[in-house]
Amino acid sequence: QQQVKQSPQSLIVQKGGISIINCAYENTAFDYFPWYQQFPGKGPALLIAIRPDVSEKKEGRFTISFNKSAKQFSLHIMDSQPGDSATYFCAAKGGIQGAQKLVFGQGTRLTINP
Amino acid sequence: EAGVVQSPRYKIIEKKQPVAFWCNPISGHNTLYWYLQNLGQGPELLIRYENEEAVDDSQLPKDRFSAERLKGVDSTLKIQPAELGDSAVYLCASSSTSDYNEQFFGPGTRLTVL
């Protein structure tokens, strides 16, 4: 119930293309869904986050799409650039017992080819 | 503004030896987290502090792991004795409160147990 499943494990996209990473969850008490970006040798950094009262949130080239009924959410990176090459993690938290605990997906290693 | 500081950045020890990691959170952040990140996986929470109090240590293997945050600022995570399976990156994060505020991660300490 606490798991967040992320796919794909790795993704290669051409420069200028759209990168799409998907996550699914089981715990309906989750009410906060952030995406983190991690570069080698660095800690994860918050990229964008969404709450389930909206179906989409856009910040620059990054968009989260959220489907509450399917318990799925995804990250879309438009006009992908080589500098976007990193590992991306979805996460979730919420509920009485898990309100303060972030549960992370397994990560997606994204490579943008120039 | 300085970010979360962790030291050392790398540590190589032999099994059964003790090891300690240090974290200095962002100034003013009263919530501090220690995470474990295995290779190719997302971070997993080990312990969360609200000021000096450990409010969630349910995932901390207490037979060999211990942590402290004596003055509600810096924190130390200790492993004694270390095992081969403890090889991982240990991340520290902090936030201004634990209620959906962004967690800022440090660069982590990469531990190798031989």
Describe the structure.
The complex is a heterodimer of chains A (114) and B (114). Chain A is an all-beta fold and 114 residues long. Chain A is built from no helices and 11 strands. Chain A has strands spanning 4-7, 10-14, 19-25, 33-38, 45-50, 56-59, 62-67, 72-77, 86-92, 103-104, 108-113. In chain A, the strands form 2 sheets. In chain A, strands 2, 4, 5, 9, 10 and 11 form a 6-stranded mixed β-sheet that branches. Chain A has a 5-stranded antiparallel β-sheet with strand order 1-3-8-7-6, with no helix packed on it. In chain A, a hairpin with a 4-residue loop joins strand 7 (62-67) and strand 8 (72-77). Chain A is globular. The N and C termini of chain A lie far apart (39 Å). Chain B has 114 residues and is an all-beta fold. Chain B has strands at 5-7, 10-13, 19-24, 31-37, 44-50, 53-56, 65-68, 75-79, 88-95, 104-105, 109-113. In chain B, the strands form 2 sheets. In chain B, strands 2, 4, 5, 6, 9, 10 and 11 form a 7-stranded mixed β-sheet that branches. The interface between A and B is medium-sized, with 19 and 22 residues.
Summed over residues and divided by their number, the pLDDT of chain B gives a mean of: 93
Rg over CA atoms of chain A: 14 Å
Unreliable residue runs of chain B: none
Question: What characterizes the major β-sheet of chain B?
Answer: 7 strands, mixed
Number of strands of chain B: 11
